[in-house]
Structure formats: C-alpha cells, structure tokens
Amino acid sequence: MSLGALSPEAHEALAIAMNQIGARSNSGEGGEDPATYDDSDGFRRDNRVKQVASARFGVTPRYLKRADELEIKIAQGSKPGEGGQLPGLKVTSLIARLRHAQPGMQLISPPPHHDIYSIEDLAQLIHDLKTVNPRARIGVKLVSEAGVGTIAAGVAKARADYILVSGHDGGTGASPLSSIKNAGVPWELGLAETQQVLVANRLRERVSLRTDGGLRSGRDIVVAALLGAEEFGFGTGVLVALGCDMARQCHLNTCPTGIATQREDLRAKFEGRPEHVINHLFHIAEEAREELAALGLTKLDDAVGRVDLLEASPDSSLDLSFVLNATDASMPRRRVWERNGDAPAPPPPSGVIDNAKRTVGAALAAGDSREYRGSAGQSFGAFIDDGVELSLEGEAQDYVGKGMGGGVIVIRPFAEDRSPDPVLAGNTICYGATGGRLFVAGRVGERFCVRNSGAMAVVEGAGDHFCEYMTGGVAVALGAVGWNAGAGMTGGVVYLTDWRQLNADSVVAREVPKEDEAELRALIEEHHRRTGSPRAASMLANWASAVAQFRQVVPVAQLQAQAAQDAAAQSQESAPKTAA
Fold first, then answer.
1. For the domain bounded by 352-566, which CATH number is listed?
2. How far apart (Å, rounded) are the C-alpha atoms in residues 356 and 209?
C-alpha cells in the first residue's frame, strides 16, 4: 500500500512494526520520503520491500539501493487488468514531490507495457535491478487468475527470486469501488495452480512463493502453506489493527480514522501505533501454531506444499479436485536455491563494447566515468546516479537511461559514419528518469522520455509517443518526431521543431517564450559540445532562424491548473476588504 493511498503516519507505522519483528513491509508504488532513511536512532522507518511498477513513481537509484527486496508489480490482485491509480485530490505537495509529479494531478500507472512486453523484457528488468542492487531479492507480483501458473513458470525462468500470487479480496487505498468489486479470483485458486506448475516443471526449488489478498487468520496462513506458499502478505487486517473502520471511502480522501487520507485535519485523528500491528500479528502467529499442532506439524516449513493434509468440506457443493491435486512427492515443494541466477557481471572498463553487455553503468558509483565504442546492449546507463558519466561512440539498444536519477549519458555516431540522420538508440529511452542529462546525436525509437519526471534530454529525432506520460524534466528534439507526441503529459517542458502530430487532448504548442530561449540554447550548446553534432552547430550558427522553428509544448492540465490558481488569486484581490 503506497504512501499516497495511505497517510504518511499510517505508512510509517506499518514499516516500523514490521521492521521491529523481523518481517518486511512493502512500500507500494509511489516511492518513499528519504527522511525515513535516517535510522541513526536505531529504528528503521522505511520499507524493506520497495515496489517497482509501470509508472516508476518515486523510483530513484537511492530508493533501489536501499531495498532488501525489490518487487516488480505487473498485476494487481484486487483489480486485475488495471494499473495503479491515485486520485488528484490525494496528490498533495508532499506526494507530488516524492512521485516527481504535479500537485492535484491524477496519477495513473497503466498495466505494464513500457518495458515489459514479454517474459524476455521482464528478465531484462530483473537483470537491471539485480545490477543496481546485487544484494536485494527480486520478486514479481502476479494476479490470481486462470493460467497464472504458466506466467509464473516464465517468471521463474526470468530469474526472479520470489513470486507473489495476489488474490482478488482486499483494496488499494486509492481506487474507486467499481475497480475492485466483482474482479479477479481467490488466492487459493491461483496459488494452487502456480505451485502445481512450478513443481511439475522443476522450477519450484528456484523461487519462493508468496500469497496475499485477504489473509486474516492463522488458519488462512496454514491453508496457504499447505497449498504451496512459504511467505504471506497482509493488508486490510493490519490496517484494521491500526484503527481502520472499513468506511470504504479510501478513494474519496475522507477516511475518518486518518489512515487512507492526505487531509491534515483527518490525519490528526490517526491513533494507530506500531505495537497495535505487532500484537495483531502475534495473535495470528499463535493461531497458526495451534492449527499446525492439530495437523501434527512442529513448524510452518513442514506444511509447505502438503496438499494431502487438506480435504473438501463434506457439505460443500464445490468441485475442489483441482485445488486439492497433490504434486509429485519426489519433487521439491519449496525453495532450496539460495539465489535464482548468478550475480550480474561488474561493469566493463572503458573500451570496445558489444550488445552482450547489458545494463552497463548501473553499478557505478559517483565519480566514475566510462568511454565506450561499439554497440551497447539493453539498458545502457540504466539507474545511474549523480557523478556518473557514460560516453558511447556507436549505438545502443532499448532502455538507454532507464530510471536514471543523475549523471550524464552521451551517444554519438561512429567517427566513420557520414550518415546525415543516423539512428543511434532503440525504444523507451529515459523511461522513468528522475534526473540526469542525456545527449544523443541521432534519432531514436518510440516512447522517448516516457514517464520522464526530471531528466534533461536532447535527441535529433524520435518515433511515436514522444514524451508520453511525462511529469517533469525537459526534452528537446532537433528533428522530426512521430505520432501522438505528449500523450498523457502532465508536467515538464518539451521543445520541438516538428509539432504536427501532437496529442491535442494532453498538450498545446506555443512560440518559445523569450524568458525560456536561454534554457533551450544552453541545452543545444551542451549537446553540441558533448557530441559534436553538425545539426546543433548549424542551429547555433543561425540562432535567430533556429529558435523561430521551435515550439514549446506544455501540458493542457498544467495550464488549466495555473489559470484556476490565477483566477482564484484575482478573485481574492478584488474581494471587498473589511476595515479593521
């Protein structure tokens, strides 16, 4: 459950409680307040499990490196088929700052599509995360539905360390009721299928299996273990322990107990304490011990995968034969591998590079710089931070600068390449970037700067969906871009010489304001200095003509919000004053 869906007080109380008893709380998507990373007083206040979802809200290199576990959310149990959602009335200045977004703007995290189109793409993201934080376990969140076992098998082969099968029961703390009612299936069905498929394909031993979605009692825990889970997640129950009265108003920002709200007057009503959660979980643990004792078992590990200890209720009319289908007893029923996959290789030194080298730069520390020549593999410069510089003479594949939080990436063509319009990088460049600077002296593929929220990037042409869902930062294109530019954009600024195919519902183009010309020129000058771009040199030599070709593209939503603020301020100024 994210900080945004929950109040800061409730979010932190859960983290403190779980840390104190050796369990792990999950940040949800949306990031965290770095202020919670100060544990000099001996108390850890942040979440050991940090989520990485399709919107990349709040995902910074520091956030990733702080995690004990990184969870890729590619499905959501309580609303399968939909992504994350935070209504604008919950996006306060604090939440907007942490998510690198604009206050008051609704935030949508659509079902994964930007860098997860296939199991192979998922494997690349898992590799990225293991590179940026080699000590963290990497997990993938799936939804309980028919066929989830097949997906789970692919996830295990993609080298995830754990798989979460999330059931339909529960809430999100942010989504409307229409999104979470009559959707999905119980965790028991998805868990049983996943366990059976993983065991049959000799994959169960490589991964841990986790489940959630309405676990409320010790009996639920034991049943989940018997069906194959060895790790268990709690949501609604622990919120009730903190004081939730199930008002079903989470998405309205009107939670009467101060848990699922960002309103300061309601947050003041929050009375939950970490010890309330701890006490609740100890009661569940005691009940689980009683259930295990009744089965003749002394520890929970011995219950994992023991479907033979379950039977259908005599008065049930349901056919539970599929759920109660026992796996081969000779095959491992739980994880025995320490780690699913080898640790990623260290970054190569400067020199020749080929496309077998993936995620180059993610493991570098501040002050490191590398110069390469050749064809880089996927995720060149992904998740680099301040003080890191990467320079490439040649070309790169998809995901250059994915999630970069700082530093500099430069890509220029081979010295012998005389093409007037070279293609130098693939799709989804600067996806989810929160900072840093990127300069590409050529064209790139589709979805350039998608979900960019803080990086400054210059490119000489791009494909469709330029700056899709952008929430911050600056992007400059010195050449043509494709269809649907600026779709879903709610923040940041774009400069284009080709604005014929903008998404008119999301953005508008206007002449570059005089006060912003210096910013545009400075970026093009830096682009020329770092890449030697002939196109940039030509523009700078004829600046008056060049700047007239550009248009500044800004979000409609941002203009409307500013207009509303100006109108409110003007109304307040013109209101009659009462004499003191």
1. 2.160.20.60
2. 31
